[in-house]
Amino acid sequence: MALVVRAGQASEPDLREALVVVGDIRDVGETTNRQIPYRLLLTKIYPLRTRVTDFAYRELERHGLPLFRTALVERSAYREMFLNGSPPTVSEPEKGAGVEIKALVAEIRAIVESDSNELRKAG
């Protein structure tokens, strides 16, 4: 089972583009007569909630778009991994970005396993 992950920031242009991509995913699903699972991943989120972030969450909910519970906060560890070659799960496994990545991976696995189990039951 596959899962489409659409990453974007909590900004109006990213939200508009996410709606376009979700429309495309739904169109392909209708054309192929199968449901394509997807989730939106918010990235570069400020550590403290802002009006912009609150707006983004409200808009995503209003459009009924599935969202990961995990969001990736704006952290230096994500930029540093391109310099030091170490992902956050290695450079800071028990804090910040390392914890976020582990949570996101666990969430993705749970979604994929759940969808796979539903397919087995239906088949």
Describe what you observe in this structure.
InterPro entries: P-loop_NTPase. This is Cellulose biosynthesis protein BcsQ. It comes from Bradyrhizobium japonicum. The protein has a single domain (4-122), classed as Rossmann fold (3-Layer(aba) Sandwich), CATH 3.40.50. Helices cover 59% and strands 8% of the residues. The protein has 5 helices and 2 strands, in the order βαβαααα. The chain has helices at residues 12-32, 51-62, 76-84, 88-91, 96-122, and strands at 4-8, 38-42. The chain has a two-stranded parallel ribbon with strand order 1-2. The longest helix is centred in the last third of the chain and has 27 residues, at 96-122. It is globular.
Features:
two-stranded parallel sheet; Rossmann fold; 5 helices; 59% helix; 123 residues
